[in-house]
Amino acid sequence: MTATAGRHARHQLDAVIHSPVRFSIVAALAGVDEAEFGHVRDIIEISDSALSKQATQLEAAGYVRMRKGYVGKRPRTWLSLTADGRQAYARHMQALRAIAGDAT
Amino acid sequence: MSTEHPLLTPEQAREQLAAVGGRSLHLARDRRIHATGTAVFGLTAAVHMTTQNVVTGAAQVVLSCVVLAIFVAEAVVVERAARTVPLRARFWSRTGIGASFVLALGVVLPWLNLQAQTSPNTVPMVLGGAVLVAAPSLLAAVVIARRRT
Questions:
Q1: Can you tell me where the transmembrane regions are (chain B) (predicted)?
Q2: CA B1, CA A5: separation in Å to the nearest integer?
Q3: Strand pairing partners for A80?
Q4: Which of B7, B10, B84 lies at the smallest CB-CB distance from A35?
Q5: Which pLDDT score is estimated for B22?
Q6: How many CB atoms sit inside 10 A of residue A74's CB?
Q7: How close A69 comes to chain B (CA, Å)?
Q8: How many C-beta neighbours within 10 Å does residue B96 have?
Q9: B21 neighbors A26 (Cβ within 8 angstroms)
Q10: CA distance linking residue A81 with residue B86, whole number of Å
Q11: Which of its termini does chain A have fewer beta carbons within 10 Å around, N or C?
Q12: Spatial contact of A26 and A81, defined as CB atoms under 8 Å apart
């Protein structure tokens, strides 16, 4: 908890996930165990560099894991949510529902 | 990382919640790929393990090589073809295949070996054993294929 902590639901919003692009990435990854970088890029509709930048920030926060490998000779990167990432996403969604007046 | 709490109106929150369901990475095709992979892995392991007393000598070496090749090919095909690992697919796959191995090593193989001491294993015995060993993997494959999330 920080000095700005309080009881209003907005205090439960995660500042890392709150960015629209990062929110889209986390929300999409929450539905799978792991997804290939290119597939996430296509679904979120952003560029390689933008996804790479946002995924790196999420990885730095401990929310996303990036696994690099090869399929044949082609390099491939896989993205997945960590346990911390799933918890943070669940808390963020709960806060969104509370703010939207739909707390369940 | 910033600890400042973002401001959000109820309308914006509703918009974000509505947007969540719109972009799913989930692919039914990937579910089928992982389910098929799990079923093939379990069936191959079941056939290989239960034929230990039936196939002997050079034929057993050949069979082992074929089984190994199938395992490697299956792993490569799944990694290449699937763009996602569906939610809990890995858990169910590992659980099913693990249960198949436990059943084979703990129940079916000791039973087949015990029977082989008095008379050779018959085809129905081997088939029955193979079905029993493959069952957990096949069940896991069905679970993977049928899950919707």
A1: 57-79, 91-112, 124-145
A2: 15
A3: A65
A4: B84
A5: 63
A6: 8
A7: 10
A8: 25
A9: no
A10: 13
A11: C
A12: yes
Angle, CA of B49, B54 and B99, to the nearest 5°: 15
Q: How do the domains of chain A map onto residue ranges?
A: 9-99
The predicted complex's ipTM stands at 0.80
In angstroms, the CA B118 to CA B5 distance is 75
Amino acid identity at B92:
W
Average pLDDT, chain B: 89
pLDDT exceeds cutoff 70 at B14: yes
Longest Cα separation, chain B: 78
- Which two three-digit tokens encode residue A54? 């946002």
The residue type at B58: A
Distance (Å) from the C-alpha of residue B73 to the closest C-alpha of chain A? 12
A9-99 CATH? 1.10.10.10
Compute the residue count for chain A: 104
B107-148 pLDDT, tens digit each: 999 999 999 999 988 999 999 999 999 999 999 999 999 987
What are the residue boundaries of the structural domains of chain B, listed by start?
27-146
Interface test with B, best of A10, A13, A96, A104 (most B CBs within 10 A): A96
CA-wise closest residue to B141 among B24, B19, B43 = B43
- Establish if A18 touches chain B: CB-CB under 8 angstroms: yes
Amino acid at B26: H
